[in-house]
Amino acid sequence: MLMKMTFQIKHTNRELFGSSFLKTLIIFLLILVLILFFNIFDSAHSLVSNFFSPFLRVGDYFYKSINQIPEFFSSKNKLLAENQSLSDQLENDRLDLIDYESIKSENEKLREALKIKPIGNFITASVIAKSPQIPLDSLFLDKGLADGLNIGDLVLSSERVLVGKIVKLSKNRATVALNSFAGQVSFGYVGRTNEPLEIKGNGGSVITAKVPIDFDIMVGDKIMVGGSTDSLVAVVGVVEEDQSSGFKNILMSLPVDVSKTNIVFVEPVIKE
Fold first, then answer.
1. Burial 213-251 (b: 16+ CB within 10 A, else e)
2. In terms of domains, do 231 and 259 share one?
3. Which of 3, 75, 78, 221 has a beta carbon 3.0–4.6 Å from 236's, enabling a disulfide?
4. Per-residue pLDDT, 254
5. Which domain-ending residue is among 84, 116, 148?
6. What is the per-residue pLDDT across 68-122, written as a single tens digit (0 to 9) for each?
7. Same domain? 84 vs 156
8. Residues 241/122, Cβ–Cβ less than 8 Å
9. 232-240, long-range: CB within 8 Å, 24+ apart, which pairs?
């Protein structure tokens, strides 16, 4: 007799993926996450850097500018000091130039005085003022009583040219009335004929004389005065005949340009 046997088939539940696969998958995912994280971090870092870069540049600019402020003021102070030094040097040079010009002028005056100084007992004086600083037809000298000058002393501009007389004195100063001073009277003669005549100052550098109509005088004649040496006092410029009065009116001028005279020589008058 056959026995009927029944076998129950046992189903075994097998996992689709093994544990090793899962581990591998997890590791792969972690690596992927890390890669994504770092990529995102780098992008974020780049984005942040790009965003803040202008601010960082501005900050760097102000930082450098602030660091340069002390240097700027230091350079400015140096320039100011150099400018002040140059200004002081220029001022010193200007004063030296003035001193040089003054000395040069004095030397020229001394050369002029030595060249034209008359022979004899003359006192050299500098003209320190003339018209229009003082009245017309006058000079102001830097010598006076303390230097041996006296009222009436003759004043010459060179060895043979007499320009006036001393009319006023103080201790260290003298006033000269030129031959053309209004009212100033001198007695001389015509150098060409030796004929005597009286001349009178008329002011404004003009000297006049009035002589008989037959008096021998002409334009260009030199009028002289006697003294220790004969000196020139005027030059005839105009001769006008007045037939109705029978006289000649003579207009004369000083023999030198007094405006250019800086040195004069005083001849003391011998007192009797």
1. eebebeeebbbbbeeeeebbbbbbeebeeeeeeeebebb
2. yes
3. 221
4. 93
5. 116
6. 556 655 677 788 888 888 887 777 777 766 665 655 565 555 555 555 566 678 8
7. no
8. no
9. 232/160, 232/161, 232/162, 232/191, 233/162, 233/163, 233/179, 233/186, 233/188, 233/199, 233/207, 234/179, 234/188, 234/199, 234/207
Question: What would the mean pLDDT of 162-166 be, rounded to a whole number?
Answer: 94
Domain that residue 98 falls in: 24-116
Of 79, 99, 116, the domain-final residue: 116
Domain count of the chain?
Answer: 2
Q: Are residues 132 and 251 in the same domain?
A: yes
Residues 146, 187, single domain; the answer is yes
Lowest model confidence (mean pLDDT) among 8-22, 119-133, 163-177: 8-22
What's the token pair of residue 55?
Answer: 């601010």
Are 42 and 162 members of one domain? no
Q: What is the pLDDT of residues 35-73, one digit of tens each?
A: 666 555 555 455 545 554 555 565 555 556 555 556 655
pTM of the complete model: 0.57
Q: How far is CA 153 from CA 31, 118, 121, 211, in A?
A: 129, 15, 12, 28
